[in-house]
Amino acid sequence: MQCSYFDAARCLSCTHMGQPYAEQVAAKELHCRTLLADHTSLQWLPPVESRESGFRNKAKMVVGGSVRNPTLGILDAEGHGVDLRECGVCSPGLRACLPVFAAFITEARLTPYDVPRRRGELKHLIITESPDGELMLRFVLRSENLAGRIRRHLPSLLDALPQLKVVSVNVHPEHKAVLEGEREILLTEQSTLRMHINDLDLHLRPQSFFQTNTEMAAALYRQGRAWVNEVGPASVWDLYCGVGGFALHCAGPSREVLGIETSREAIVSAQLSSRDAGLQRVGFQADDATAFALSADRTPELVIVNPPRRGIGRELCAWLESSDVQHVIYSSCNAKSLARDLAAMPSFTARRVRLLDMFPQTSHYEVMVQLERC
Length: 374
Hints:
Blueprint: H1 4-7, H2 21-35, E1 43-44, E2 58-65, E3 70-75, E4 81-83, H3 92-107, E5 122-129, E6 135-141, H4 147-160, E7 164-171, E8 183-186, E9 193-197, E10 200-204, H5 214-231, E11 235-239, H6 245-249, E12 256-261, H7 264-277, E13 282-286, H8 289-295, E14 302-305, H9 313-322, E15 327-332, H10 335-343, E16 348-356, E17 366-373
Parallel strand pairs: 1-16, 6-7, 11-12, 11-14, 12-13, 14-15
Antiparallel strand pairs: 2-3, 2-5, 3-4, 5-6, 7-8, 9-10, 15-17, 16-17
């Protein structure tokens, strides 16, 4: 894939841009193999490749420029807006709506936040596209001052983009490099975006996390379900469950499944998805994964973990190591923390591993490992 923004050094976020895709995937697998070299019994399944371009279902656009001429993209070293409306890794549906959002900023007179001067209101637009082409739009504002104005002008935006189903305002008053704040104000009657993945509808609320590559997310959940069904456990915990992707895919009539996630918004999403699917033996709870495991009075036969980049950490590794859990499926976006965590659980043998290229044009990837107690 070639990118004019990268070639002109306007945006260098995709560090592997221009490198042949086969070479990218091979380099990622070599990196992962090197980190997991001590696990000699590992069977390496073929990597799952992504589309090279148009794969992102989510755009996090910094708003710069002026009301009359807003930019949607990133900021340069001086804090000035760099417009990236034609970013090639974003889905065609996302790219098509960006000019409409830019025009809305002008129409509603939404003042972009000037980072160097710490003035203005509109910081970011966060847009998510569902597999069916529906959209969620979040305005990240410095305060509530423009929320009423957005609400008044919203009908014209909804007329221009009928696929826009969920709109909210996120209030982020602090001047720091954090994408969003804690408070969310919903502006539409519909509160969730329906993400149809494989044979399930996953509901996504504004502050819930979902993988940015829909096709790879579907492959990730299919692989997890296949490994769980091979083992056939009667009980499963999905720790760091997010909106419940793994838990919902692994549900069965004779299987108790419990998902744990700190985000209450994500748990609400997961519960709604479970009810819609008519799943009777799947539950979700808002809690810290480690704290939940350490205080539990029982253990499941199989645990799925899908932690953030820092990994599951020393305490949860120690709990798994000393527990009665027989099987673990570890899905990781950071092979370094994965390797560290596996080393802390010597009672488990890593049997199979699969790399999924969730993030083409970068050095990042997702990797899943199937573990069983020795």
